[in-house]
Amino acid sequence: MKEHFSQVNAMKAAVVRGEVAEFRVAAELLATRQLSGDVASQWKVHLQTMQNAAGVGRDASDIEAASTALGGVGRACASCHRALGGPKVEVGTPPAEGSGVNLHMVRHQWAVDRMWEGLMGPSDEAWLKGSEALGDAPLRRSGIVKGKTVTEHIAVLAKETHALANRARTAPVDERGKHYGALLATCASCHAPLEVKIK
Ligand code: HEC
Ligand code: HEC
Question: Which of 35, 57, 80, 165 is deepest in the core (most CB within 10 A)?
Fold first, then answer.
């Protein structure tokens, strides 16, 4: 199970970085991936559902479409895990709050990673803790880029990220994919205009 659909990690990273072309390549890989060895018949139907969901991402024309498709994949992972067993999710504790955009972003990344686990696990605890870690106060407009006042649009995105997480927290399990997708698209929509390069 080591290589258990690890292509999805590339899809997630591409969304946060705002790289649609990269996303499509990773979606194609997941959609067409062949499992080695015999695949039990009860696996096949779930596998097909998940690969169909990944297939939707092959045609994503923008980040919103990509993140929506990614949410659909997470939902499909969850439905197999619910039926056949899945990961044991250990939530841990979020990185400390602190001042500055970098620490703030490290917490964001931690939060969306937990929310992903909450979605695909599925794990209520991970979903809750992840969305709570995004419940912090948003960065102030002057604190987003050092020494520069960002546009009103960027300031709105900062607030939007936290508002989306607050709404996601109480969403029905079935709708987690949609909320996760919307949240991840917001990360990208701030990184792209600021030309943030994430390793
Ligand atoms: C066809 C069914 C099925 C699908 C689809 C599926 N999984 Fe799993 N997954 C399992 C089962 C069964 C286990 C637990 C058994 C095991 O760990 O060997 C598991 C375990 C895991 C684990 C814990 C073990 C490990 O390898 O680290 C992770 C993480 C995981 N799945 C992620 C995912 C993600 C992400 C997706 C969607 C992209 C996904 N799975 C789709 C059946 C599935
Ligand atoms: C309001 C704008 C904005 C939003 C929204 C935003 N980011 Fe960022 N992000 C930035 C800026 C600016 C940087 C660059 C920080 C620096 O290096 O000075 C950054 C950097 C990062 C980094 C790299 C951090 C480092 O130190 O290398 C990660 C990871 C990251 N963001 C994740 C996220 C995630 C995940 C989300 C969505 C939940 C998100 N960001 C939402 C503005 C934003």
Answer: 57
